[in-house]
Amino acid sequence: MSAQLEYTPLPQISEIHDRLRATYTSGVTRPLAYRRRQLLQLARLLQENAVAFENAELEDLGKPRQEVALVELGGTISSALRAAENLEEWMKPEKPTVEEWRNSWDTTIYKVPKGVALIISPWNYPVILSFNPLVGAIAAGCPVVLKPSESTPAISGLITSLVPKYLDPDGYAVVNGAVKETTALLDLRWDHIFFTGGTKIGKIVAAAAAKYVTPLTLELGGKSPVIVDTACDIQLAAKRVLYGKAQNSGQLCVSPDYILVPKAIVKEFNEAVKKTYEEFWPKTPFHPEAQWGKIVNPLHYSRVMTLIGRTKGEIIAGGEVDGVRRIATTVVANVQQADALMEEENFGPVLPILEVEDVDEAISIVASRPTPLVIYAFTDSEETKQKIVEKTNSGCICLNDTISQLGVHEIPFGGHGDSGYGAYHGKATFDIFTHRRGFINVPKEIEPYVAFRYPPYTEEGYKKASAGVHVKIPDA
């Protein structure tokens, strides 16, 4: 029997907001010791309840325990511990280098919390995409309302029960619900909103944020392409692409969405995909040993099945279904740019392969489409790498692998253009919820040097004021 999620009564939503606002105003969340304690408590929450989270994701998504442990639990615990360890350094005021004549002004950048934040997380990776932004908000000193997805009731219910047991309930709260409850949240004034999800809802969130001029982080996904160059290890490329597509049954914002392969190697690549498929799932993905996950709900299942039914391409691997929302990874060859599989983000276990003339045509196709969250490319060519960097746009680029960029906390992760805006991971998540507040202290001793700026204006004062206009500009 599926878990039942109890929605938060609408009157309580504004009460929760007011409680967290009062906590922020009191200054409780600002001290280093408070932030560090909450971060360590969040790590304990995940560590001590790891099996419960694995069970909940298995119930909601059929996600293998190995994926939950590696990607969601381990990654988020590491993120919380890393933030706790580095927090003192992150919080330190900065003393920027200034022009010599302003050396005495005590020019400083203070790292201050933005205020009360709202985090709206999706159903596909409910632990890491709920708690990873929360790590940054806690580190920054921001109280948070966390809104997990109603599509994963077991996980959202578990989050709801655990957060007040481990974290300060006056600083961190969970609101559950669907459209009405989310609308009620968005009607309130926040100091930052962090949203991960689809473009359609992302636009609604952006419009709500604009009403109060609220800072916003949007991570929207999109059709992330794979470019396969003739200068690459074709078998390894097929293996790594298929691995990336298999994660969470393709329900991942950075899942490889389509593959562009030069015609000179497309036959070899297709054969490599078939070989890898047989190696990954020798007894079909639905065998108990395969631990194959399921599509989140009947609506999404129907959507993916409709895409497969509409494609004009040829299924060369997978395509089986089992009637309980499980669809085997379906690799489709000979797909054209106008095919149904190229209309929007597939967000499921469907992987089209498009034949192109060469890598230059592949790059041209990617550049002509909406900006993706990530571009994957398999190449040993420095020239090809530079072409991709210079001639395309994306949130990030990952060469010779898929989804590994998620594990590199030293680089920011986020969308660009159509795939969203704002970047996080590691210290960048702290930065999202932090306002860099400039400060100067202008000494009275400089008064003789700035006397020319005051009325009544004179010709001598004008000469001094306009000195910057007449500086020498060097030749290009």
Automatic annotation (TrEMBL):
Keyword Nucleotide-binding carried by entry: no
SUPFAM superfamilies, sorted: ALDH-like
Entry annotation: catalytic residues: E219, C253
InterPro entries reported for this sequence: Ald_DH/histidinol_DH (IPR016161), Ald_DH_C (IPR016163), Ald_DH_CS_GLU (IPR029510), Ald_DH_N (IPR016162), Aldehyde_DH_dom (IPR015590), Aldehyde_DH_NAD(P) (IPR012394)
Domain (Aldehyde dehydrogenase): residue spans on this chain: 30-435
Pfam families: Aldedh
Keywords tagged on the record: NAD, Oxidoreductase
TM segment ranges: none
PROSITE patterns attached to this UniProt entry: ALDEHYDE_DEHYDR_GLU
Single Gene Ontology MF annotation: aldehyde dehydrogenase (NAD+) activity
Gene Ontology CC terms, in alphabetical order: cytoplasm
Any single biological process term in GO: aldehyde metabolic process
Family: Belongs to the aldehyde dehydrogenase family.
This protein's name: Aldehyde dehydrogenase
